[in-house]
Amino acid sequence: MDSKLFVAKKFFEIGSDDSVTADENAEFLKCELIRLKTATWFLKKFNAAAKEMKVDIATNIILSEGFLAREVGTPLEASGLDAFEEGSSAVWLVEPHQTKTVLKFSGTLNHLNRQDKVGTTISSFAHFSYQVSNQELIFADIQGSPMNIQGRDTIVLFDIMSHLPTSDSGIGDHGPDGIKSFISQHHCNYMCQGLKLRPLLEKEDDPADSEESCEEDDNADNNEK
Known about the structure:
Layout (H helix, E strand, L loop, with lengths): L5 E4 L12 H31 L8 E3 L3 E4 L20 E6 L6 E2 L12 H16 L5 E3 L2 E7 L2 E7 L2 E3 L11 H11 L4 H5 L12 H18 L1
Parallel strand pairs: 2-8
Antiparallel strand pairs: 1-4, 3-4, 5-7, 6-9, 7-8
Helix pairs in contact: 1-2
């Protein structure tokens, strides 16, 4: 792995009194990696769409790399396993080490409408992902660290959460309630407008009202600049 520094993640508890078993940890980390790879795919689509439609977005945003590593032989002391569970072993999610500085762009159920270019880009990216996923995916708890990669200032996103209608994308998935939280809090910005994203209003709303609402959001953003 060259001379890079890496960090390894494992779940020991998830807010309950019961400890996390080796198999549960492996499943949770698999979900974490799937979220990471899924967000990477959507970000590439988002960047390509912005380039094609000539929308000025922040292009210095990337997703962290990551892979799963399974221990072989005697468990490491850090794994917290005293002995192998039958047919199980410790699994870790390994990612490149980031800086200690962490920038928060959204929470699990709180979706900020920041006015800086990076924040506006990430808000529009979340809207884009929701539309491209046929209104079935919301990325949440979006955070990143500023890094200098090959001489370029870059924001590396990591530990992203998501909400699905089925509530099964991993830890922190609030299902339909999580999706509704984004719909109710997101304000369309000029990037959403440039990408011709549909306004986030309930399906039963009148289409004409939806278009007007999105335009009002955009005008409000422009007035604040």
